[in-house]
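subagent[fold] <- orchestrator: predict structure for attached chain, return tokens only, no commentary.
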Amino acid sequence: MKMKSLCIVPCGKKKIWDTDPSRGPTQALHVYSGPLVKKCIEYARKFHPHSWVILSAKFGFLFPSDVIPGDYNVSFNINRTNPITVYKLSYQAIDKNLTDYDNIVVLGGHNYVNICIQVFGIHKVKSPLSSCRGIGFMLSRIKKAIDNSQPFYE
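subagent[fold] -> orchestrator:
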């Protein structure tokens, strides 16, 4: 029996409103414009076309079609920006049926991986980029997986 996997893409600081401030509410798929997020979304769409979400520090787990009302600047790395709590994320995961997956593939750094471990448990979370020493290495690893049609986990 094939394992069901969910891919989690990190959010990013760069957003559509940086280049188009007058743009109104926008689907999550089109909000984040940084190079890492774009490459992570490309990976998710290729290998997990019906089972991926973006993890936003403000809104939590977002399906690609979820609408974000406007610009914001919240970071898991900066507590004073009031990022969403693990407690709220845990409820969201249940509410959005994200706990039904066997594997959770997190395409983010240590912070995202640690948050996902707290939400889903250490045995479900896979972190293919955790050994990378920076965004350049992450981008390279994701690009290689896409170019070779080799997902990190099957």
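orchestrator: received. Logging for downstream: The domain at 5-147 is CATH 3.40.50 (Rossmann fold). Residues 35-47 form the longest helix (13 residues).
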